[in-house]
Amino acid sequence: MAVSFLVLALLPPAALDRFWRRRLSLFTVSDAPRAIVSLISFAGFTFLAAAGLFGSRDPLSNPLPLVVWTLLWAGFTLLQGVFGDLWSWLNPWYGPWRVAACVFGLQPGEAKPSRLPPWFGFWPAFALFFAFAWFELIDPAPDDPARLAFAAGIYWLACFVAMFIFGHDAWSKRGEFLTVFFSMVARFAPLERRDGRLSLCWPGAKLFAAEPLPPSGTAFLLLALSSVSFDGLSKTFFWLGLFDVNPLEYPGRTALIGIGSFGLVLTFVLLAAVFAFAVFLGQRLAGDAPSFAKAAGLLVWSIVPIALAYHIAHYLTVLLVDGQYALVAISDPFALGWNLFGTANRMVEAGVVAGAESAWWLWNLQAGVIIAGHVLAVLIAHGLAWRLHPQASRAALSQLPLTLLMIAYTIFGLWLLATPTAG
């Protein structure tokens, strides 16, 4: 990362700009089937919710927790980062909304003239994302199928009602946290769709054209990174030792609700404070006039490859093992002896993450992903800095504190992978 920073400081901005702007046109993709795909997704969601309520109580036998936590949150995020905005097709609100718009005589994408007030920014999505992170990381039983089905159903219904109040587009883009998160991650993907035409570009190239986020959007992206970081930190011997918890006698999540809630907030506050200080110090070193809010809102886009890298590294073992359980459970969702997809009797191979050899290649793969994510973040941050500071020397100076922060965060991420954990 340090070497990449030095190289970028010496290269002419125009040459790098031409490099990132390169596109390879592929083919045209129509939006026509989008509503149908969304309705199928909604039907699948309803089916999974029913399985959560009436299927097996075992989280490794019921498909709902496996699909939500493993296939959607762990796996689909990776697909978004590789193939672009697949979620805009699969989200379970768009199709039902189009049907409701036809039934009630509304224009697609509209409900009432009122919209989400502009001063709300992304704060509704931030609040819902924080609640989601708390439920995943702190709640005593996020894997309980019935509990998860109830939470998911209430969330779907609340968002659907909000779309009637504020409008489908307004709530989707600034209120529904999954759509906001997945759309931000999709900006990293090497596939770009513009005016119906699909093109191939460099990973992260679309981030260079991003507009500065408001403070609420900056907070949202920082929460995406800090929540995954805290998930890893909360299981370490170091963190538990701070609160006199014996990691070899893990007391369970219920006993750690207070500690976990404090840690989730603290991790976000510390990351936000350090990021803000790095941006502020960089602006002072550069000596230029762009406002702090504009600089922070633009440079925070460089967090996307880091957040995606941490997400992949953190959930890799879960995806490799629980992904197999999901294939088994989805064939027999109600534990009635069905075999819908021919995978109900498939043996789960947990040995893929067990043993010294597996640990070696897994750790190196995770470490490589984290380092690559940070190097790409340095590249993207420099490209964004040139938009703030046209003079190359000032742009390089402005990025020095942020690069040091990224180096420190890389060390922190590698330490999380290597340090002993409990639970």
Automatic annotation (TrEMBL):
The chain crosses the membrane at residues 32-54, 66-90, 116-135, 147-167, 219-243, 255-280, 292-313, 361-385, 397-418. It comes from the Bacteria. The keyword Transmembrane applies. The keyword Membrane applies. Keywords: Membrane, Transmembrane, Transmembrane helix. This is Fenitrothion hydrolase. It comes from Mesorhizobium plurifarium.
